[in-house]
Amino acid sequence: MSTPNTNTPSNPPITVAIIGNGVIGSALALGLHKRNIRVKVYEQAQTLRSIGAGIAFTKNARECLALIDPRLDACVTAVGTVNGDPRDPNNNMQFVDGYTHDPVEHCLPNEEMVGRFVFKLFAGERGFEGCHRAQFLEGVMEVMPEEVVCLGRRLERYCLPGEGENQSDKIKLVFGDGGVDEADIVIGCDGIKSRVRQLLYGRDNPISHPHYTHKVAYRGLVPMNLAISHLGSYRALNQHMYGGPNAHVLHFPVADQKLMNVVAFVNDLDDWPLDKGMTQPASKDEIAAAFVDWGPTVKGVIELLLRSKEMDKWGVFDMYEYPAPRYAEGRVCIAGDAAHASAPHHGAGAGIGVEDALALCVVLERAQREIDSGYRGKVDALGFALKTFSDVRYERSQWLVRSSREVCETYEWVNPECGKDMAKGFEDVKARSHQIWYFDIEGMVKDLQRAFDMVPAEDLVL
After folding, report:
1. Does 366 participate in catalysis according to the annotation?
2. To pair with 116 at 20 to 30 A between CA atoms, which of 124, 142, 164, 208?
3. What is the pLDDT of residues 204-219, one digit of tens each?
4. Catalytic one among 219, 235, 376, 393?
5. Per the domain annotation, does 87 fall within a domain?
6. Distance between alpha carbon 272 and the CA centroid of its chain, in Å?
7. What's the first-to-final CA gap in the chain, in angstroms?
8. Given 268, 299, 318, which residue is the final one in a domain?
9. 350 to each of 24, 149, 199, 397, how far by Cα in Å?
10. Domain of 417: which CATH number?
């Protein structure tokens, strides 16, 4: 590493604009604020609210949250719901054949699975705890400084330095309400329909939009007392994944075991236009028909889902078909779902986004130090930081997008290497899950830091 350029004049602290106040945007903001980096989050919603049902943070995500800011992991612990008996938590993800049964033998949902082999995958201590997305975000907002989040600010466009009317050295942000602000860098954490991604790659570019996977997820929250009465205590209070032909069903406890989160995935041959809302009212007839031939337990779970007051139908979209070639251009980048939205079949989309947030905290903290020391100028340091983030995070995050589709095929018995052999399917799921859970986080941080060490300031070309 060459000698710092002490002749470079000192720079004021960098300013970061985050677009979107979801799980990734809020976690990143808290992490940057903790590192004394000036950050503002611009959220288009008028109030701090969050739609969606259950979310689970896996082992790797919990570790990253703690490294970003220990209070984030504490937020998960505060609202996380123990899987199984609270006195003896079940730290396994559980897989079982939910389709094969004797159609002549009539038994109740809480009787059918007695003696059925269940494949158990250890997820680490507290490695699978469901929580409600809104409850987690409420906890994050309680520790977020008030001045950080700006509500009702829908990004329309940004102007780079020297572009159009912007003669500043900062990026100019223009919002739908006519408001204007500026920042040194812009990070799009604005989800699967990211406006920042559209601005990076062009609104008419297929790369700029998610695409339908032809999977529909029916979702609902079931009162736990009702779930226990139908399924029995063990089944209702423990996570289960039921595999079968061309569909699969998942449930796990949330809300301190007061609710059971249920998701049923089925094929959909129709198109789902992007301008149609991703969540729609669900038809009870269509979901009942999809599972009419399944075993009594799964049919019992579906019956509970049909009785849920807030059941909806969610079109599953991802970025598989048209991936972004990179996640950063100059001083603008995308992270989380905005960069690599995946289907939810690994339950790891948020976790991979949390890894992004940690990576961005690492590179921006390093960039700030190099700017303060005069070793690199602000433009070069920040551009290099975002490029390094993109380079290091790209392969793993794109793997998740692919694997999320592939593991769904295993759940649904259409993976030609496994078919309906649950034992082979379990080994496939295990290998993929371990690749997510046992990620070398320390190695990622070293890779990010090493990139700065390997490129002297005078050799930096962006």
Report:
1. no
2. 124
3. 999 999 999 999 999 9
4. 219
5. no
6. 22
7. 18
8. 318
9. 7, 20, 23, 11
10. 3.50.50.60
